[in-house]
Write a structure and sequence with these properties.
about 40% helix; binds calcium ion; alpha/beta; elongated; about 20% strand; five-stranded parallel β-sheet; four-stranded antiparallel β-sheet; 8 helices
Length: about 230
């Protein structure tokens, strides 16, 4: 696992390098944001430790540039300041986590392990809500162990509802994300409503507990607190 440490204070950078190498990571250090950005764009790293206060372009600017370029390397921000504003700004700018100096080295290691684990996760291919299950690999959906006979569109719709379970999904969202049509229209709304109704018959029809809810005037919701 390769870690890039961007830190202008030599003592801290050296201590981090030494400590991380001692537990088996390969570490490269950069003393400015520009150097760090250059390293990240020329070599592969599994994680970046980024100091917030850097000479020249600060950590936030570097962070924003990295994310704008579409580089998804997990980034842990290190900072001497601890204010809510800094924290929010850092996370909003694309940091994955945040650690305030001085920190205990074991805590840094724990955060690093967590981010590396998260970064290596496979994309989700199975979804579950109560006794409703959907598997993208086998392209099967079932409820209470009984297979659901779904059309391709119904399957796609159910997958989308499961991905957003517990949240309200509007017709606009369904039009864009499931039907891939940007323009709202009455005929499209009708198609969406009919598909939802068919899906609901198959998913909820024979079962006492209803999972798909209509949120009047807003859209639909799969799961959530009350099952009406
Ligand atoms: Ca600094």
């Amino acid at each position: 696992m390769r870690i890039l440490v961007v830190e202008d204070e030599r003592k801290i950078a050296d201590a981090l390098k030494k400590g991380l190498e001692a537990v088996g990571y390969q570490v490269t250090t950069a003393a400015s944001g520009e150097d760090g950005f250059f390293c990240l764009t020329t070599e592969e790293y599994d994680l970046m430790l980024l100091d917030l206060m850097l000479p020249g372009r600060d950590g936030i600017e570097i962070l924003q540039t990295i994310r704008k370029k579409g580089i998804a390397t997990p980034i842990l921000l290190l900072t001497g300041r601890d204010t809510v504003e800094d924290r929010v700004l850092g996370l909003d700018s694309g940091a994955d986590d945040y650690l305030v100096k001085p920190f205990a080295f074991p805590e840094l290691l724990a955060r690093i392990r967590l981010l590396l684990r998260r970064g290596n996760q496979e994309p989700q291919h199975a979804f579950k809500l109560d006794d409703l299950e959907l598997n993208l690999l086998t392209h099967r959906a079932s409820r209470a162990g009984q297979p659901l006979e779904l059309t391709a569109k119904e399957f796609e719709l159910l997958e989308y509802l499961l991905q957003n379970q517990g949240q309200v999904v509007s017709r606009e969202m369904l039009a864009q994300d499931v039907w891939q049509i940007r323009e709202r229209s009455t005929p499209l709304d009708n198609v969406i409503d009919v598909t939802i109704a068919r899906l609901r018959r198959k998913v909820d029809g024979p079962f006492e507990k209803k999972l798909i809810r209509t949120m009047r005037g807003v859209g639909f919701c799969l799961g959530g607190t009350e099952h009406v």
